[in-house]
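User: quick one
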Amino acid sequence: MNGIETVFPALLALGLVAVAVAMSLYQRLDLERDIGVAVVRSFVQLTAIGYVIDYIFGLESLGAVVVLLTGMVLFAGWTSARRVRDVPRAFVVATGAIAVAAAATLAVLLLLRIVPPTARYLIPLGGMVIGNSMNAASLTLTSIRDNIAEQRLKVESALAVGATSRQAVSPILRTALKGAMIPLIDSTKTAGVIFLPGTMVGMIVGGAAPLEAAKLQLVVLYMLLGSVSIAAILVGLLSYRSFFTPRHQFRRPP
Amino acid sequence: MGSAAKIEISGLGYAVEGTGILKGISVGIPGGKITCVVGPSGAGKSTLLRAINRLIEPDRGEVYLDGLATSGMDPLELRRRVGMVFQTPAFFEASVEEAVLYGARLAGKAADPDRLLGLVGLDASLRGRAPRDLSVGEQQRVSISRALALEPEVLLMDEPTSALDERSRQRIEELVVGLNRDLGLTIVLVSHALDQVERVADRIILVVGGRLEGEWSRKDLEGRGVRRLLSGRL
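Assistant: Done. Structure below.
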């Protein structure tokens, strides 16, 4: 079984989705359409990426891995920026932050020889780093945008006594960075107690020894903590500038 | 351009998304006096104030401080010389002391919080309190004290009493008059309340629709009152 028929048994799990749809109809949640879109998209996207990764494994070329990861970074940056359409340059900021976060963490893993430079490791780990950095970028961007709007009076009152725009928004940046990092810190704290993280689940189900699975899971968690911090901090430091002129004025009047 | 003016505003224009807010205002503001800016809502009074300390960047025209163009100044340095107090006091800081010293600390300037609180009639025992636990009137005095910590030459006040009750309004008014008299501070006060203007103003500037519609001195007020002076213009 090497073709698409390999993934068909997964469709049996759709029975559970039917329960969700029934629930949505019964409670008039109006979510059936969204659930349908999610089911179809996840099926198409995961099957397609399965084929792509299979193909790249066959190429045995690091260049192909870099191309794939670059594509993922661009898509992640676009997704993140779409949440904050009213923030100028959000795409550039989000994409740049995600790219640096992914490149830096993967580089550390490779340089310290924690993982070998092969597609089998780089694609899944890269995907996780990019996905988590994307979430951090989105959370940071929306938090900064919302808080600058809500706390405009406080920011302006700081500017009025000679604060730079960076100094004036620093409490907002701190809140945003905390908000982006706390979910991952909490899930790292509770890993193994409240839930088994995805990598470990996948490896154990795939037949790996539990301790081997734990080892890779630890690498993944530490790698994610690093990349999420980098992404959030970069987004914070780059995005607030979009709200101010170089002369420390709000770009948009109230 | 009158050489005696502390602030000289010349042909100031500012538009937001094509709508003119300031439409070529030219006016001089004398040093050491209280100048009141009056006019209907949306006349551009607050925008005019923000153009003086360059919280906004005018599209055209110039503001001179002691004869020097503010467009060429470091905006942070300018804002330390020209303080501003807003209609609604708002602080990030967790304590009154931090709020008062915020600007002075950024400027690397030594300041005595007890003296600064005393200047605005607040007790030094409030230093450790959270600003949000104070009354709005007290918070407004904290924001004045924070502006004074930088020892500014000019204080811009954007309707500082409109969010306050009668008693707090009166205390802020007395404070404004006292700061002008005792420190020689040049004060530019935007106000909606004509009785307030009558009590404190040395000069009155009327702004309507982003244009200067008139200016009067204390002398013009005598025997007429501000209501008659401005009647039919607001």
